[in-house]
Specification:
Layout lengths: L4 H11 L4 E5 L4 E3 H18 L6 E5 L4 H12 L3 E5 L5 H10 L4 E4 L1 H4 L12 E4 L5 E4 L2 H8 L1 H8 L19 E7 L7 E6 H14 L7 E4 L6 H14 L2 E4 L6 H11 L3 E4 L1 H16 L2 H7 L4 H16 L6 E4 L6 H9 L4 E3 L1 E2 L6 E4 L12 E2 L3 E6 L8 E7 L5 E2 L3 H7 L6 E9 L5 E6 L4 E2 L5 E2 L1 H8 L5 E9 L2 E8 L1 H6 L4 H17 L9 E4 L19
Parallel strand pairs: 1-11, 3-4, 3-5, 5-6, 10-11, 12-13, 13-14, 26-27
Antiparallel strand pairs: 1-2, 6-7, 8-9, 9-20, 15-16, 16-17, 18-19, 19-21, 21-22, 23-24, 25-26
Helix pairs in contact: 1-9, 2-3, 2-6, 2-7, 8-9
């Protein structure tokens, strides 16, 4: 039996009317009832505009309660939401708004000031996400309606707007709900078309396998315009009646830890980069001290140290954490080993925008280290190889989560599917006898060795990132040799007053240590230092295509 995500949200609104729902951290907050009332106001304006089912509405701005309310208003009206990442360049924002034929635009003021409405001719109405101020209207009648929205609201609901007035459509599973343009790590943005069924299947999985409820809180740190953040830090939370706190920007470890301590969330949804920064800055410096290493060699004392580390971490995360979900990229092996050793309640999931986003997941109690869980409900995965357990092949998917295609791009849509209808993920992996999925890398980043060996840069990078003074790295092929591009820990270099010659020597030592861990055909010939951190996608993966 399938449950529509709007049915979940409608039920949350009705049953938790006076409870807090969406909060801008250290700023304003909205109860579930206030969320519904603002949605109703938006709908009045949509009606005055003549907005129809299937019309496109773009949204672009940092995470905020107002962003969330506006998105809910769009999808509950059966218009098609077009969330755009707020770190897209202004030219991209204009191009994608026009490509999607969006006629309404919810946008933050700073982005609006950088774009030219003449390049978005389909637009009829533009609303500011900060306070819902009118930024542009093509129709004087709509301008007047916006100015008198409170009068119109009272006229439509003379007896007041309460839980009994909340009714959202749920008979539209196979209709287009959302177009999500994603940058990805290897290609230009494409408009992924997701239906209400795609989204509902994801939210239903969350509600059945990771139940939440009124009184639970969550800190949102992922972009809402990306499906990982949209589905699991917003819609799934709203479906259960959780209070979501929006930080509004990508947080530093300090800002994040301060927010976690204040909000005390029941769950933490994040990407490897955030967890790795916390561990490398707060945990490793302690357990790698010589005296601690000596103590841990004494039989029985290692478990005592790990127990204290676990207690310290859970306290730092607010003290109420039941689950830590990590996704978006591979997690560093050394960090995961420590997470397992200290018995943190973590799991690693796997997904992509084209599946809205979930492909695989496993409960923390059954999660197998190094994997990214098992295929989720209503989804099937297969490995395109002769022996899926031993020979790496492309991970392919089919089921209720899979997109219907790319908007106005039949060529890309055709290329995304196999002849028998399975979605080509572009990821390479294995699947064990219990259906646990193990990702080995991206097919587009695979390097073929001199004798035809498959070289997975991500596996080399994982080992290199564990070396001293290395923050992050990517491995590329140049003149048939492997070169590691490294962004070093310049803060540590500065603290220890190391000059460039000394740093180069340390990196050469890293290279030699690394190569001892690798087969001959995948050894690194050279390390090249990067002056700045690598450019990232919204899910904090390195944009590999920028580096050659």
């Amino acid at each position: 039996m399938k449950t529509h995500y709007l049915e979940y949200i409608q039920n949350s609104i009705v049953t938790t009317w006076n409870m807090p729902g969406l909060t801008n951290y250290k700023k304003n907050s909205y109860t579930y009832g206030e969320i519904a009332q603002h949605v109703a106001r938006h709908h009045i304006l949509f009606e005055k505009l003549g907005l129809k089912k299937g019309d496109k509405v773009a949204l672009c701005g940092p995470n905020s309660a107002e962003w969330g309310i506006s998105f809910l208003a769009v999808t509950a009206y059966e218009a098609v939401a077009v969330p755009l990442l707020n770190d897209f360049l202004p030219e991209s924002v204009m191009t994608l708004t026009d490509h999607s034929e969006s006629c309404v635009f919810f946008v933050s003021r700073d982005i609006w000031e950088k774009i030219d409405i003449a390049k978005m001719p389909h637009l009829k109405l533009v609303i500011c996400l900060e306070g819902y101020e009118l930024l542009y209207s093509k129709d004087p009648a709509v301008t007047q309606a916006h100015a008198s929205i409170e009068v119109l609201f009272k006229e439509k609901y003379p007896g007041g707007f309460g839980p009994e007035q909340v009714s959202y459509p749920t008979d539209n599973f196979d209709d287009l709900a959302l177009i999500n343009y994603t940058s990805g790590t290897t290609s230009a943005p494409k408009g992924v078309m997701l239906t209400y069924r795609n989204i509902s299947s994801n939210i239903q999985f969350g509600q059945s396998e990771m139940p939440n409820g009124p009184g639970d809180t969550l800190v949102s740190m992922l972009p809402m315009a990306h499906m990982y953040g949209m589905a699991f830090e917003y819609l799934y939370q709203l479906a259960g009646g959780t209070q979501v706190f929006f930080l509004g920007k990508v947080p530093s470890p300090k800002v994040l830890l301060d927010a976690l301590a204040t909000v005390k969330p029941y769950m933490m949804i994040t990407v490897p980069l955030v967890i790795e920064k916390i561990f490398k800055s707060s945990v490793f410096p302690t357990i790698q001290k010589p005296i601690i290493k000596s103590i841990m060699k004494v039989p029985g004392l290692a478990s005592v140290i790990y127990k204290q580390v676990r207690k310290k971490l859970l306290h730092a995360f607010g003290g109420n954490i039941r689950t830590i979900i990590i996704g978006g990229a591979a997690i560093n092996e050394e960090v995961e080993d420590l997470m397992k050793a200290v018995k943190l309640p973590y799991t690693v999931g796997y997904g992509m925008t084209e599946c809205g986003p979930l492909l695989s997941y496993e409960d923390t109690a059954r999660f197998v280290k190094g994997s990214c869980g098992k295929p989720v409900q209503r989804m099937s995965l297969r490995i395109d190889s002769e022996d899926p357990r031993a020979i790496v092949g492309e991970i392919q998917a089919r089921g209720d989560n899979v997109m219907i295609g790319y908007y106005k791009n039949p060529e890309a849509t055709a290329a995304a599917f196999t002849k028998d209808g399975w979605l080509r993920t572009g990821d390479l992996g294995l699947m064990d006898k219990d259906n646990n999925v193990f990702i080995k890398g991206r097919s587009k980043s695979l390097i073929i060795g001199a004798s035809g060996q498959n070289i997975y840069p991500e596996e080399i990078e994982d080992k290199l990132n564990n070396q001293p003074y290395v923050v992050e790295s990517i491995v590329v092929e140049r003149d048939k040799k492997l070169v590691a591009l490294v962004f070093p820990d310049y803060d540590r270099v500065s603290q220890e007053s190391l000059d460039s010659m000394h740093l180069a020597q340390l990196m050469e030592e890293n290279r030699m240590r690394l190569n001892m861990l690798l087969p001959v055909f995948s050894r690194i010939a050279k390390i090249e230092l990067q002056p700045e951190a690598f450019e990232k996608t919204p899910k904090r993966s390195i944009k590999r295509f920028l580096y050659k």
